[in-house]
Specification:
The complex is a heterodimer of chains A (about 475) and B (about 375). Chain A has about 475 residues and is mostly helical. Chain A has 22 helices and 1 strand. Chain A has 3 domains: about 110 residues, no CATH class; about 230 residues, MetI-like (MetI-like fold), CATH 1.10.3720.10; about 120 residues, no CATH class. Chain A is about 75% helix and about 0% strand. In chain A, helix 6 packs across helix 14. Chain B is an alpha+beta fold. Chain B folds into 2 domains: about 35 residues; about 250 residues, MetI-like fold. In chain B, the strands form 3 sheets. Chain B has a 4-stranded antiparallel beta sheet. Chain B has a two-stranded antiparallel ribbon with strand order 4-5. Chain B has a two-stranded antiparallel ribbon with strand order 6-7. The chains are: A mainly alpha (about 475), B alpha+beta (about 375). At the A-B interface, helix 4, helix 5, helix 15, helix 16 and helix 20 of A face helix 1, helix 3, helix 4, helix 10 and helix 11 of B.
Chain lengths: ~475, ~375
């Protein structure tokens, strides 16, 4: 009995076991460390199998010895509580420590130590590490697709302008705050469309862009004099009306001539690509799918049976099919459904398809929020004499949307992650460009670098988005 | 009258709009097809397809019909979905439980896995495995045997084939074992509820599953032999394994990335489910003297499953739909074989895309009906 007690770690002989255990644990970690960083095998004299398992056995005995409950030493108690609660956990902890130690050197050497950064041809990539030169040479293609190098400032300028215009909400004073919703729902998408479609396309439509900007500015200026009761309808109609007026009735002939003189070069949408195309598609689908989804969510909860069934049919249809078949449909089947002389750009078709697809998911998320609201909210709003639209806009939707922020964020995240699929219809965003670049005969064999690069970019974007949605959720969390 | 109009008006407008849009589309489609001289119809399904498919579960070559090609694609889709669902469930449950581990290292390791794989587009992961990772595998002639008889090479994973004699007897014995287990389980539950007696169901089940098939070998005349893949030289530098079963690299890449990606979502569902069971439940169960195993089996899991199953079903559906990304790496699934090759050959865009979409719709709906049935079965019986 005493012999067993001797082997059982106890508080009475605390320091004996502590020193012995820590020493054994330290030895096991050191062995693996030396093995992985300096490829030294301390236990090489033993048979292979034993030499492989020895650190695990030594470390396990070490952890067993230092597993002393209520030792009174703070660090030791913390260690025991977190990684060393029982034998099973001790083995798992050791395994994870060893895996991390083992995997650091190869990863480090591939990423940095043996990697080539300099130069601009394949010849410099002779080491066993990554060839970041490949990324450096191709970076413009990965970012902008086949968009001409000389014109890429237009994409940059558009994105900067949109980011600036998008951040207006943070700087708006209280006086303008009440117009922010209107701004973000109507004006901002309008300007965004002008910038992205006309400014980046350039060519003859560049003057469409200038008409649009003039129309937007004019309508905002006039908007200040419109009574606030009509403001919503005003902004819904007037900018588009002004734009059409300008384009077809006032400036048309004169500016077309001017446009031929010094307009921007025309870049067709087929040449757009790379990461900027990912942003463009995500941006537009995000803007479009939200209102469509909201409409169908309300439709699915509507009291009118026909509207309800149509909404259910729409939602279940889009949710039941994979996005890739939807894109196929937009590419090969949709043109059959349009009049013969009517042509819709491939990119626009893609954006419509993805928006409708994601709208069904947004609709289900919003419906969840609508269902989670207690009936009392509806009844209270009705008892105040509010109609259907007033009730939803002022009472129901603000609360329901607050509830579903995480769900909406997840849907948007899925949208961003789905954009690479557009390669099936021949649009090359960053993943498509990678596939193109890796088949270039001068740069064969660097698929890994390209995919790792794209993975890092997407990971940063998606992780940032999910963290932001988490913050948003915390910010709008109201006690109910 | 006024009230009636208010009720009917919006519906009428919506229906009218839907009918108009559909009418517009159908009219245009008719005009377009007439102009191009295409006729609408599903007759092409019985025509000879005259294209080959690399990997198929049923016998198929160019002399078979388009319908057979459709079946090949469908079976390949189902195959990769089933493999993916099984792997993703196993991995997802392990990671989900690991996320709740008190062990700091395990917990963080699982969290890292989830955050890492969840935030990278699936398509990128498929490309990574297919074009980068699996291309680093050895050529057939340099491959070291794994587990003695299987070979993981750049041309696929070669495993021995099972050659059965009297397979149906073996199959019946397994079915009989499963039926017996179900009967025993139902009886055990009754015994538990009426008399409070516990039966070692798990041990009996394992025993039955082993003994009955074993009996079929001893008495039923079932024989099993293996056909081990053998290296064969095609040309001076070109080798391939013959015999056995070969899993193409497309299938491996697809199943791997689908399960790694979906497992992260399943892990989150499992974690949410287990966290969703109140702490009081566990304490109450322990206080009436149940052992930790019983607490997990009889109290925690039945409640957690109720929370876990609906979102997990959604993930299974997503996995099935995501398997259509196979087209990107030329794994011959439904989209590639039917909506790709067959569409190119026949030009029947509307028919083929609609059949493909309808197939996915029915796959989704059948999985969700199955899962709803199960969900209802385990739901709380409220009186």
């Amino acid at each position: 009995m005493s012999k067993i007690n001797f082997l059982k770690p106890d508080k009475s002989n605390l320091y004996t076991f502590l020193y012995l255990g820590s020493f054994l644990f330290f030895v096991s970690v050191l062995d693996v460390l030396l093995n992985s960083f300096f490829s030294l095998n301390l236990t090489g004299f033993l048979p292979d199998f034993l030499s492989f398992l020895l650190p695990l056995i030594i470390g396990f005995i070490g952890l067993y010895f230092i597993r002393i409950e209520l030792s009174g030493i703070k660090q030791l108690d913390l260690l025991n509580k977190h990684i060393n609660t029982n034998n099973f956990n001790a083995v798992l902890s050791l395994l994870i420590i060893f895996i991390i130690l083992k995997s650091i050197p190869p990863i480090l050497s591939w990423f940095f130590v043996d990697a080539s950064f300099a130069g601009d041809s394949k010849d410099v990539c002779t080491g066993s590490g990554a060839c970041w030169t490949y990324i450096k040479v191709w970076i413009r293609r990965f970012m902008y697709g086949m968009y001409p190098n000389a014109e890429q400032w237009r994409i940059n300028l558009s994105f900067i302008a949109l980011a600036l215009l998008g951040s207006v909400g943070y700087f708006a004073t209280d006086r303008f705050k009440k117009y922010l919703t209107l701004y973000y729902v109507v004006i901002y998408p309008f300007i965004a469309f002008l910038f992205i479609f006309f400014f980046i396309s350039g060519g003859p439509v560049f003057f469409d862009f200038s008409y649009g900007i003039i129309a937007a500015i004019l309508s905002i200026i006039i908007g200040f004099f419109i009574p606030s009761k009509f403001k919503f309808y005003y902004f819904l109609i007037v900018p588009f009306g002004l734009y059409i007026l300008l384009k077809y009735f006032i400036f048309y002939e004169e500016l077309i001539e001017l446009g031929k003189l010094d307009g921007l070069n025309w870049v067709e949408t087929g040449a757009w690509g790379g990461l900027s195309l990912t942003f463009i598609i995500s941006f537009f689908c995000l803007i479009f799918c939200f209102p469509i989804g909201m409409a169908f969510a309300l439709g699915r909860r509507s009291g009118f049976p026909l509207i309800r069934y149509i909404s259910i049919g729409f939602i279940e249809f889009w949710r039941g099919v994979p996005l890739i078949t939807v894109l196929f449909m937009s590419a090969v089947m949709f043109p059959m459904f349009l009049p013969a002389d009517f042509f819709i750009d491939k990119l626009v078709r893609c954006i419509i398809a993805i928006s409708l697809f994601e709208a069904a998911y947004v609709a289900e998320v919003i419906r969840g929020g609508l269902q989670a609201l207690p009936r009392g909210q509806y009844e209270a709003a009705k008892s105040l004499g509010m109609g259907y639209w007033r009730m939803h806009i002022f009472v129901i939707l603000p609360q329901a949307l607050k509830l579903v922020i995480p769900g909406i964020a997840n849907t948007f995240l899925a949208l961003v992650k789905d954009t690479p699929l557009i390669f099936v219809v021949g649009l090359l965003e960053i993943v498509g460009m990678l596939n193109l670049a890796k088949t270039n005969p001068e740069w064969l064999g660097f698929a890994m670098e390209g995919y790792v690069f794209a993975a890092i970019i997407f990971w940063i974007i998606c992780y940032a988005m999910s963290k932001y949605s988490y913050n948003l959720e915390e910010k709008y969390k109201t006690d109910r | 009258m006024n009230i009636k109009l208010k009720d009917i008006g919006p519906q009428l407008i919506t229906v009218l709009a839907v009918v108009l849009i559909f009418g517009f589309f159908t009219y245009n489609a008719q005009v377009n097809m007439e102009n191009r001289g295409i006729d609408f119809g599903y007759g092409f399904l019985s025509q000879e397809s005259s294209f080959d498919v690399q990997f198929s579960l049923i016998e198929y070559d160019g002399s078979h019909s388009y319908f057979r090609a459709y079946l090949v694609g469908l079976l390949n889709t189902i195959l990769v979905s089933v493999i993916g669902i099984i792997l993703a469930t196993i991995l997802g449950v392990i990671v989900g439980i690991a996320r709740l581990s008190p062990n700091y290292l395990i917990n963080k390791f699982a969290a890292f896995y989830v955050e890492f794989f969840r935030n990278i587009p699936l398509l990128l992961q498929i490309f990574f495995w297919y074009f980068a990772a699996l291309r680093a595998l050895p050529l057939p002639q340099d491959a070291e045997p794994l587990l003695g008889v299987t070979f993981l090479t750049i041309k696929g994973y070669f495993v021995p084939a099972f050659i059965w004699e009297n397979f149906n007897i073996f199959f019946y014995s397994v079915v009989a074992a499963i039926i017996a287990i179900i009967v025993i389980r139902i009886n055990a539950k009754k015994l538990q509820e009426t008399q409070g007696k516990q039966t070692p169901v798990l041990l009996i089940s394992i025993g039955l599953l082993l003994i009955l098939p074993l009996l079929s070998f001893l008495i039923g005349g079932v024989r099993l032999s293996f056909e081990v893949p053998v290296l064969k030289q095609l040309a001076t530098t070109s080798f391939i394994y013959e015999g056995g079963v070969s899993l193409p690299p497309e299938l491996i890449a697809l199943a791997l990335s689908l399960s790694l990606y979906t497992a992260t979502f399943i892990a989150e569902c499992v974690r949410a489910g287990i966290q969703g069971v109140g702490k009081g439940q566990k304490e109450a169960a322990a206080s009436i003297g149940l052992t930790p195993n019983q607490v997990l089996k009889l109290v925690i899991m039945p409640q957690a499953l109720r929370i876990i199953i609906p979102p997990t079903t959604n993930q299974y559906l997503n996995l099935t739909k995501n398997s259509s990304l196979a087209a990107a790496i030329a794994y011959p699934d439904l989209v590639l074989v039917f909506a790709g090759t067959a569409l190119m050959q026949t030009g029947k865009a509307i028919e083929i895309v609609s059949i493909t979409m309808f197939t996915y719709l029915s796959l989704s709906i059948s999985i969700s009906i199955l899962m709803n049935w199960y969900n209802k079965k385990i739901a709380i019986q409220e009186k």
